[in-house]
Amino acid sequence: MKKILVTGGAGYIGSHTVKRLAARGYETVVLDNLSTGHRDFLRWGAFAQGDLGKADVLDDVFTAHKIDAVIHFAASIAVGESVDEPLAYYENNVANTVQLLQAMRRHGVSSLVFSSSCAVYSPHFDGLLREDHPFGPLSPYARTKYMIELMLQDCAQAFGLRHACMRYFNAAGADPEVEVGERHFPETHLIPLVLQVALGQRPLLNVMGDDYPTPDGTCIRDYIHVQDLADAHILALHYLDAGGDSGAFNLGNGQGYSVREVLDAARAVTGCEIPVSVAQRRAGDSPRLVGDAGKAKAVLGWRPEYPDIREILATAWAWHCKETPPRQP
Ligand SMILES: NC(=O)c1ccc[n+]([C@@H]2O[C@H](COP(=O)([O-])OP(=O)(O)OC[C@H]3O[C@@H](n4cnc5c(N)ncnc54)[C@H](O)[C@@H]3O)[C@@H](O)[C@H]2O)c1
Question: What is the pLDDT of residues 295-313, one digit of tens each?
Answer without folding.
Answer: 999 999 999 999 999 999 9
